Amino acid sequence: MTERSDSPAVRRLTDWDATRLESFIDAYGSPLYVLDLERVRENYRRLEAVFPDAEILYAVKANALGDVLTVLLEEGAGLECASAGEVQRALEAGASGSEVHYTAVNPPAQDLDWIVDAWNEHPELTVTAGSEDTIDRLADRGYDGRLCLRVNPGIGAGHHEKVQTGAAAKFGVPAERAVEVLRDAADRGFDVVGIHAHVGSGVSSDQLDDHREFVARMGGLAREVSEAIDGDGLEFVDVGGGFGVPYREDEEPLDLASVADATREALGEIDARLTIEPGRYFVADAGVLLTEVNTVKEARDTVVAGVDAGMTTLIRPAMYDAYHPIRNLTADAAEAAETAGSSAAEARETIPQTVAGPICESGDVFCSNRDLPASERGDVLAIGNAGAYGYEMANQYNSRPRPASVVRDGEAVRLSRRRETVEDVTRVEREARTVRD
Ligand SMILES: *Cc1c(COP(=O)(O)O)cnc(C)c1O
């Protein structure tokens, strides 16, 4: 497959225009998430090109912003939703029932109530159950619609133990019990349409053998299930998401064509459609987080650059020890101006720095002792690959309002989420008081 020249396999943090990004802080304040919708489209098209006959669902939990859902629906993706809330957002973004898959993981009662109501209006939606209890609870609510079974293949993959879901006990029904569970569900009148597994996030080229083994098991299981169940057989085999993206500057992008080839080959002959459901792959390199330096201090072993974003804004470094590239936009913009001859700024010295947020937790650091241009108070830093699991995991710990987000689409830039205020943080408490009094 030839790479489209306007759609490189990866967009590095250094590919963004420093001056342009920095200007967003003047307009919208700091910290600020920036998401490039055109890059989301490019990522979708690149994946679609190597999986031309697969059904592609977007795992909404990576970034549930309405603009992202709209763009991916327009491109032809369906939406994989992890909660009733995500299903609600998917429908609000214009998804039809047949474009929505709801994956129930120990689903709270109110989620199932909501989903069954939504199914009455959208009978084409698909529910993926990960336990017999969930199937029973669906039946109790009168649901006998499209049912997919999440199986636990006993194989995990991913960049960190906490994202390896394939063997984690909380996900799915052990694969060896799948036939029995599905036969039973079919006998009870459910419309059994698929099997599903998701082995983890951050699957990389060097874990391709694990991926192959996992997909081969899914193919084998699909053939077994189709034989065991009367009727039309399975409609799809969903092998999940987990397509890795290079977070480190020296990491190569995933070789998509070989992942696609390996997937097809390992799956073998099946009388069902292949479904994949990546999240991170579409949005990670389409997003950056901008943050302003407010403190520079010499600590005992390092220089600390204190910034206004923290683990409440982007939790991945604190939660998964995740690496994110960091760039000093102010220094880079000054250097670009110098090269262009429009200013005479001194080149910044590069020194090891620890970039730390404002939260009272020692884990609240984005990097430790990393070589970066010497920070100055007022500099704007960009944290790269922040489009996936960034804002989605943001929270209000330390009574810190969540940041604003902007989307860029070609030359147009617009606010997509306003910055929260402390009023937003305390609203639920004030409202409880009103109800009580
Ligand atoms: C999180 C998740 C995905 C997407 O994972 P990525 O690593 O973002 O591709 C897909 N399917 C399920 C069931 C998930 O929980």
Number of helices: 13
Q: Which homologous superfamily in CATH is the superfamily of the largest domain?
A: Alanine racemase
What is the CATH architecture descriptor of the largest domain? Alpha-Beta Barrel
The Cα radius of gyration reads: 23 Å
In the CATH scheme, the class of the largest domain would be Alpha Beta
Total number of strands: 18
Average of the residue pLDDT scores: 93
Quote the beta fraction: 15-25%
Main sheet properties: 9 strands, mixed
Q: Could you say which small molecules are bound to this protein?
A: pyridoxal-5'-phosphate
In quaternary terms, these chains amount to: single chain
N-C termini distance: 66 Å
- The percentage helix is 25-40%
Structural class: alpha/beta
The backbone outline, from C-alpha atoms, is globular
Output the keywords.
eight-stranded parallel beta barrel; Lyase, Ornithine Decarboxylase, Chain A, domain 1; 437 residues; binds pyridoxal-5'-phosphate; 2 domains; TIM Barrel; alpha/beta; disordered N terminus
Characterise the protein shown here.
This protein is an alpha/beta fold and 437 residues long. The chain folds into 2 domains: 37-282, Alanine racemase (TIM Barrel, Alpha-Beta Barrel), CATH 3.20.20; 285-426, Beta Barrel (Lyase, Ornithine Decarboxylase, Chain A, domain 1). 33% of the residues lie in helices and 22% in strands. It is built from 13 helices and 18 strands. The chain has helices at 18-28, 37-50, 66-75, 84-92, 109-121, 132-140, 178-187, 208-228, 256-267, 280-283, 316-320, 329-339, 422-436, and strands at 32-36, 55-59, 78-81, 100-104, 126-129, 146-152, 173-174, 191-196, 236-238, 273-276, 287-298, 303-307, 326-328, 350-356, 365-373, 380-383, 404-409, 412-417. The strands form 2 sheets. Strands 1, 11, 12, 13, 14, 15, 16, 17 and 18 form a 9-stranded mixed sheet that branches. The longest helix is centred in the middle third of the chain and has 21 residues, at 208-228. Residues 1-5 have low confidence and may be disordered. The structure holds pyridoxal-5'-phosphate (PLP). Residues 59, 61-62, 80, 82, 103, 198, 201, 240-243, 277-281 line the site of pyridoxal-5'-phosphate.
